[in-house]
Every structure is written in structure tokens, then in C-alpha cells.
């Protein structure tokens, strides 16, 4: 997809999280200048949901409502039509797996771009065959994760001789039934639109354009789940998910009979001001700090987490504020920069980047399409 084609589109990004649905309408003029027309986020309170089926239906209904609302608002207030939609799936809506393709020619050969293209085409055909056999899951992505020649990992394998070659591919699947429901919601609100599907963790690579040899750990902390993505040289090495998210802090306070609604709101208000008065919110602070520490201890039990050069962390308050304090206490990592965009902080190992929400603009979609 060319960038000139993208400039002709009004883009709608739909991000489906574990406990929220986030929608943005972005208009791009003839010169490529971007304007965010409308933004809408809808939280889903899972304490009111009694089963996994009810949870799924709640998410689907929320998607249908927010897409319809924002599309109508864009039409009425901006007199424009949505004609291009990018859908991003966070956990638990996608499944990722690594697959290995091996080559062992009878004599040494040169690894070329045509060799890689042949592997990707063979893998794509295998995915197509599997999808036809298993209608429950639909593949949406396939990305190169690792390449080794003659037993050694290599970042640039082209025009090099090999006797053995191994290519790891990261494949992402989404429930076919759920994807059909998402598509139905989109088409009901805006017909004849082009719709592309991505996993949100991989989309983060396009957002940050991480292509250095530094090893990054991306921590995407949303309502019920944390997605953990390890990246080096612009490729995904590993993806993990843990069932702990920002909502667990609120649940912990709600479950404590000694914390009133008034004191909870006072605590959240103080968090927004970046200052905590321990005399007034000590109980709330202790309860939430215990949850953040539990999350941190889960992370340090992941070997890859402890062998990372840089961390990129996406979260929001109160989780973000308290985890900042946890990092300083447990690792001695303190804030170096606090003048980024609103809601962002940079820390040091070699740098931890926080963002309240990462925007996925048309140029990021274009980068993903490549």
C-alpha cells in the first residue's frame, strides 16, 4: 500500500483491549497533514460479567456501539466518511506461535531474497491449508523472527553460503467468529471500507520503529492482561502474556472493606497530581503497592526480562505512578526525563519509555504493511 494512497483515506483505528475498546478517527489531507477528528474509549467493567461468553458478547456489543457512534459523529460534525479501518487486537483476542522452516540442500547454496520469498510463500500456503481445515482460527500476520545459517543466528543472511538454514516465523491467529463479529460491526457503521487486522503487540514495533540491535522489552499493561514482547533488530523474539493489569489495583481496593469509595477517589485524585499524602491514603497506597509488586515479581521470573537492554512500558495511572516508585525501590531506576509528550516518562537502564497511549497513525500502518 503506497503512502499516497493512504493520504486519500480517512482512517479509523480500532484497538480491542482486554477491558476496553479504543477508537480514533484520523483525517489526512492532500499534503499528508493529519488531524485527529474524534477519539473515544469505552471501559468494560468485568466485575459485572459472569462468564467468558458474556464477556465476549459485551466486548462485541461495545465495538458495535463505539464504531457506530464515532462514525456518525465524524459524518455530522466533520462531513467526512470513514473508508479505511485498521483493527488492533490485544490479549486475549489473539494467539501467537513460532514456526521453524529448515533448509538442508545436498550442497552449499547462497541464501537469497528469492530463498526467503519461497519460505514465506510455503508458510503462507500451509497457513491457508490449516485455516481451511480449522475454521475456528484465522491467521492475520506472519513475521520473520529469527534466521540462522549453519547453526549461527544472523541478522543479514542474504548472499551468504549455507549448508543448513533455519527461519523462525511468528504467526498470529484470531478467532474467526470474533473477527467476523468485528467486521460486521464495522460494515454496519461504514460500508465498503477496507479493513486490515493486526495484533497490537506487533503494531507497537511500527509505532516505535525499533530496528536497532538493542534488545527491547515492551510491556503493554492494559485492563486485565499485560502483553510482554521481546524485540531485537526490529524482529519479535518472544511474546508472553500474564493475567495482571491495571484493573487489579481497583479490584484490590474494592475488595478491601476498610477502603471507602470516597477515600479511593481521593487516592486516585492525588495520583493524578503526582503527590500522595500518606496520612490520608496510606491504606489505599499499601494495597495498590502490593499488587504492583506482585506484578513485578511475576516479570522477574521471566528469564528474558532480566536480559534486556531497554524497556518500553505502556500503562496509565494509578499503575504507572506506583510502578515508577517500585522500579526505583527494587532496581534503583530513577526518572531521567519527564518532558516528553503528556503522560510519558523516560527512565534508565538505557532508557524506559512510558506512554499513556500509543497513537497508531497512517504512517505506522504503512510501515506495518511493508
Please give a handful of descriptors for the protein shown:
18 strands, disordered N terminus, Nucleotidyltransferase, domain 5, Dna Ligase, domain 1, 7-stranded mixed β-sheet, 370 residues, single chain, alpha+beta, 5-stranded mixed β-sheet, 10 helices, 31% strand
Written description of the protein model:
It contains ten helices and 18 strands. With 370 residues, it is an alpha+beta fold. The protein folds into three domains: 3-92 and 177-204 and 360-369, Nucleotidyltransferase, domain 5 (2-Layer Sandwich); 94-172, Dna Ligase, domain 1; 210-355, Nucleotidyltransferase, domain 5, CATH 3.30.420.40. Strands 14-13-12-15-18-17-16 form a seven-stranded mixed beta sheet. It has a five-stranded mixed beta sheet with strand order 3-2-1-4-11. Helix 8 crosses helix 9. The protein is globular and about 75 Å long.
